[in-house]
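It is worth pausing here to work through a concrete case rather than discussing structure prediction in the abstract. The textbook approach is simple: state the sequence, then state the predicted structure, then interpret. We follow exactly that order.
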Amino acid sequence: MRLAFPPTGHAYRENAEANLVWRFIGAHAPDLVLIAGDDAGLGAALAAGTPAGVGRVPSRAWSATDSLVALRAADAPKSDAHGEIERRLARSPRICSRS
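Step two, the predicted structure:
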């Protein structure tokens, strides 16, 4: 089965691999996603949507000839998803228990 993003259908019942990648990106909230090879629409989906409803994550194409050192990942700005995960982690138990 060919990957397609954003994933459609019932999560993990249909398009299981695409759902896994999409939710992994949302859960881990990277500052940048490097896409090697055919992106199956992942770059466009990340630009237009929010993985797992967490926040936007920038992406760019990458090939084996690109230098990871030159990328300087430490200088990448924090993604919206990264900031949202930090905000959620900073919540107190009291705030989380309110209904």
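Step three, interpretation. The mean pLDDT is 87. The chain has one domain: 16-97.
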